[in-house]
Amino acid sequence: MKLSFSSMVRRSPGGLTEGMTTTKNHSAAQTILVTAGTGKVGRRVAERLAAKGFPVRVGSRSAEVPFDWTDRTTWAPVLADVAAAFVMYTPDIGDPRAAETIRAFSELAVASGVRRLVLLSARGEVQAAPAEAAVRESGAEWTVLQAAWFNQNFDEGVFTDMVLEGGVAFPAGQVLEPFVDSADLADVAVLALTEDGHAGQNYELTGPRLLTFGDAVETIAKHSGRDVRYIPVSGAEFGAVLEAGFGMPAEEVSAMLDIFATLLDGRNAVVTDTVRRLLDREPIDFADYAREAAAAGAWK
């Protein structure tokens, strides 16, 4: 799951590929839009596309041509001359506003000439079903990526400050989760955006093994050298933190807790082989992610 609350996720600087119109390998008519293009997954998708020579338009509020899910006047300009789009809705695909917004965006995209839509969704999140349906019914070639929880939530997202403070408090109990790496998600997204054979597919994307959130935090402690532990809390306790600590409105907190109750009931405690089949390699293991992130100074 992306867990990308806009007020809580640390975003890396964007603009690397913004403004590109042509490259030596691909024409401007093949421009690919990457929404949430400065976030954990979108940034990696944009970087990989640019490395392959595709013109990329980064969709973000800070881009040269700004894009904002809540400001529909920004949609048409970023969709001009776009052949394919990576669609990642924030704050969450299961948000009550997501389905109608994504449906309107998808319809405008198709009307603007976009032929292919790749939606990043969340594995097992029933609240995401209406948004997924909006893309499937858009008339475009579509692929839906249903992702497990991101590794990078621990060093680029909501859990980062908790790791640095020594305690990751979250209402996951001992549920098992096949954490997936954002790099694997990005590689699969690029395939779906640029190659044939993925239209009409729902891809459930996981890492190679199951861990509890406690296992994940223990792994980070081992490789970072930090004294950090997992603190299981109730949904109500976590909701109070979101309201008081992050200023989330009560309505949004309630919707988020409903999503967590679904995702953290054990339904996702199964590993898939989709990443291996599509990329012809093993998915990145959480221990390898933690080792590399620690070596890069993620938790200094």
**Order of SSEs:** EHEHEHEHEHEEHEEHEHHHH
Low-confidence stretches: 1-24
CATH topology: Rossmann fold
Structural class: alpha/beta
The DSSP helix count reads: 11
The total strand number stands at 10
The CATH architecture classification is 3-Layer(aba) Sandwich
Strand order of the largest sheet: 2-1-3-4-5-8
Helix content: 25-40%
- Overall residue-averaged pLDDT value: 91
Largest sheet: 6 strands, parallel
- Work out the oligomeric state of the chains in this entry: single chain
Strand content: 15-25%
Instruction: Tell me the span between the first and last alpha carbons.
Output: 25 Å
**Rg for CA atoms:** 18 Å
Overall shape: it is: globular
Say which CATH homologous superfamily is assigned: NAD(P)-binding Rossmann-like Domain
Instruction: Count the domains.
Output: 1
User: Class in CATH?
Assistant: Alpha Beta
Describe the structure.
It is a single chain. Strands 2-1-3-4-5-8 form a six-stranded parallel β-sheet, with helices on both faces. The protein has helices at 42-51, 75-79, 98-111, 129-136, 160-165, 182-194, 213-224, 235-246, 250-263, 274-279, 286-295, and strands at residues 31-35, 56-59, 82-87, 116-122, 141-147, 167-170, 176-177, 201-205, 211-212, 229-232. It is of the alpha/beta class. Helix 3 (98-111) links the parallel strand 3 (82-87) and strand 4. The protein has one domain: NAD(P)-binding Rossmann-like Domain (Rossmann fold), CATH 3.40.50.
